[in-house]
Structures are given as C-alpha cells and as structure tokens.
Amino acid sequence: GAGVSQTPSNKVTEKGKYVELRCDPISGHTALYWYRxxxxxxxxxxxxxxxxxxxxxxGLPNDRFxxxxxxxxxxxxxxxxxxxxxxxxYLCASSRSGNQETQYFGPGxxxxxx
Amino acid sequence: AQKVTQAQTEISVVEKEDVTLDCxxxxxxxxxxxxxYKQPPSGELVFLIRRNSFDEQxxxxxxxxxxxxxxxxxFNFTITxxxxxxxxxxxxxxxxxNQGAQKLVFGQGTxxxxxx
Lengths: 114, 116
Fold this sequence. Notes:
Chain A is mostly beta strands. Chain A is 0% helix and 48% strand.
C-alpha cells in the first residue's frame, strides 16, 4: 500500500511569508505526527494528532506554527511570518494508533526561507 | 527527561567489515520503547526495529543485529559484512510509554559510510 506522502517536496519562500505543508498519512492510521529536522540533527517532535484532535502540541516552537487535521486524515502544518531559522526539513509520520506503535515517515518537505 | 545519545558522529569502514553503532538513552520511566531508523541520501526515514523495555533479548535480522542492555541503558546496532548500500545516517530513538505524547526523541544520528 501507499506510504506517507508529503507535498510539496521542496518549498522556497521569502522571510515574512506564510506557508502550508501537507501530509497524507497511510490509509487507516489514526495517529499523525510532525517533526522538524535541521541540517545534521535528528528529527525533533512538533505535534501529534490522534484523529482530528491535537493530543500534544508541546513541540511547536511558537505561535507562528499551527497544524490542523480536520477530517482525521490529511494534515496541514501552517507557518506564519516565516523566518530564516524556520528553514529545515519537515517530516510527517503516521502510526496505526497512538500506543507507541511504529511511526512510518514520509519523504519530508524541505523548506528554505530566504 | 528523555535523552538519546549517539556519540559516534561519523563512521567510515571498508565493505565487508562489521560495524557497531552505539546508542545510549536516558529515561525515568520503566516502560518505554526503543527504535532504530535509517535515513539514506534520499532523505526518507526507514524503520528498522522497535523494542520494548521488557524484552532484552537480542534480535537478528539478516546482517543486522541489535543488543539491548538495560543495565547500561544501551541499544546498540551491528551490521555484519557491511555493504555499500548500508551507507546512510542511522538514528536511535526513544518513546516513553507513560506519557500521553507518543513522541519519539531522536539521537543526533551516526553517518555511516561504507567504502568499496
């Protein structure tokens, strides 16, 4: 079956602009996660959804970052007033449920803020 | 607090050599899960193994093996008879079962280069 997909694969934007990153999880997976990976680092947790609700958003760095999952499937990560420091690869993962099930990752969106 | 340390930033070996990637973790929970992921140059994280804290049996899958030792809080990964296709960045990760968050905490990764 299809894995986790993310669009776009690359996004270049200017400082101050608004961006949306999309994640399509594996069909039937109720849990969805966003991570951010800076160059040379391991991924860092941003937010976790169980169904439609954000069960844990403790990793979002500030209020410029927001994510939604209105129908419990596709999720969108939204970044307002982008800053150069937001440049990173944004990874999405999904799992069958939230009970420490294995998380399967998408290919990521590489965001570059100029 | 959770923490994962991969002290080896980069390892380079010649093909067919055995190589071990170290992972040390910190957690206050008695129930937790450990993972290894592979990130090839394409960038996608590929799941390799998941192990819960109550199962200390070593695991072997083909040329890959994992050694879990709670006494030293380590979960090391060995590749036997390495191949060029094993070249990638490898991440060890921890998830605490008692937290509602389900998040993975990753180490910094070890970049493994297998030279022909």
